[in-house]
Amino acid sequence: MSMLRSKNFTFYYMHKQAKMELPPFDAVGGADVPTFTCPLDVCVCEGCNGKLIFHLSVEAVLYDLGGPAEIYHEQKNCTARNCRASYGYNYRWEDGQKINALKTEEFEDGVLFVNSKKAFSLKYLQYHEELLFCGHLSHAAVSHAYQTVHAESDAEVVGRFHKLHATALFYHMAVRDFGCLGLHKEIIIDDEVSDQHFDLYEAFCHSSVFPPTKRNQVKALVMDGNQKLKMQCSEAPMKRGGRPRRSKDTVGTYTNGWMLACDPGSGRILSLQSMHEPENNEVAGQCVEKVVWLYPKMDCIIYDRPCSFKSFGETMPALEQEGLVQ
Predict the structure, then answer these.
(1) Cα gap 141→1, rounded to integer Å
(2) How confident is the model over 175-227, as pLDDT tens digits?
(3) Are 62 and 113 in contact (CB under 8 A)?
(4) C-beta of residue 43 within 8 angstroms of C-beta of residue 80
(5) C-alpha torsion angle, residues 274, 280, 285, 288 (rounded to 10)
(6) N or C of the chain: less Cβ packing under 10 Å?
(7) Nearest-CA neighbor of 77 among 125, 41, 108?
């Protein structure tokens, strides 16, 4: 504000400040608010090498182990005229879908955005990933505990936090696991992984992850079905009140468990196959067929249904070629 005086009057006028690129700050405490910008400088769209420039800054919330915190999310745009793609921190927009754009090692700031206003720290996701697979902790339990502890925080804790948490958790695992196959740029946030990508990842696990270091030491394979650990079917019917459905064609809520094949010497799981039907010879044959070519010294299959499986295995070229069915 400036003041001008003359002989007849006194008046004031305001100077309009020009917009300046200043770091964001908290008006209450004066501390800097963290800002996260996409680490990419060049567009990753196929056939485009346009430069990425700053577009706008959006107020967002970061969910961490210490509670939600306010942050700024700076977004970028591609300068190529035939592209003009919009980029968030770790994704780009294409046909209304958020497609991942970063590898695991490129998450330099330790955060992951599921949309323009919601982000999770990688330590938070790693912590809850261990609880999910080792402690069988549900997303609803995580949501209840997080909202109970941090409900009075200044930052927002959304009502359907468990869905946001699940999206971020499995998105983080997909980027990590599919990155080794070069499929990280085909992951769509808030969408399922395609069946083709799952089949490719399953083949990679059976050929490179499950086998021991010395494959020649595997001389036998022990198989059995495990019905205690079941998968929930994505096409299962919704829960409802009243009498149960009478239709025999209704898809079940859960599968029948897993068929597991192990090395009796080390106890290491070498192959597994989901059982959408109760344990049968076809599932057992698929479980063996996946890995039989990996172990040249294997000459024995131990199974609790030898008579019926032997006649079925004689029709499988893979088992006949290896001499396992005689």
Answers:
(1) 55
(2) 999 988 889 999 999 888 888 998 899 989 998 888 998 888 998 999 998 88
(3) no
(4) yes
(5) 60
(6) N
(7) 41
Is residue 99 predicted with pLDDT exceeding 80? yes
Per-residue confidence (pLDDT) for residue 119, from 0 to 100: 95
* Of 169, 229, 178, nearest in space to 199 by CA: 178
Look at 52-56, 153-157, 212-216 and tell me which has the smallest mean pLDDT: 153-157
Residue 120 half-sphere exposure toward CB, CA atoms < 13 A = 24
Q: How far apart are CA 263 and CA 212, in angstroms?
A: 10
- C-alpha distances (whole Å) from 219 to each of 117, 270, 283, 287, 300 are 54, 12, 21, 16, 7
pLDDT category of residue 154 using cuts at 50, 70 and 90: low
Measuring CA to CA, how many Å separate 96 from each of 87, 187, 189, 321? Answer: 12, 14, 11, 50
- Global pTM? 0.75
Instruction: Tokens 């485009």: give the residue.
Output: 48
Contacts of 46 (CB under 8 A, 6+ apart): none
List the structure tokens of 111: 């955060």
- Which alpha helices (H) appear in the chain, and where do they start and end? 122-134, 139-150, 161-179, 195-204, 281-289, 306-313, 317-322
Nearest to residue 177, comparing CAs of 234, 103, 274, 88?
103
Adjacent-strand bridge partners of 118: 61, 115
DSSP 208: I
Give CA separation, 132 vs 93, 125, 143, 178, 251, in Å: 30, 10, 13, 20, 25
- Residue 139 CA to its chain's centroid (Å): 14
C-beta separation of 193 from 174 below 8 A: yes
User: Which amino acid appears at position 312 of this protein?
Assistant: F
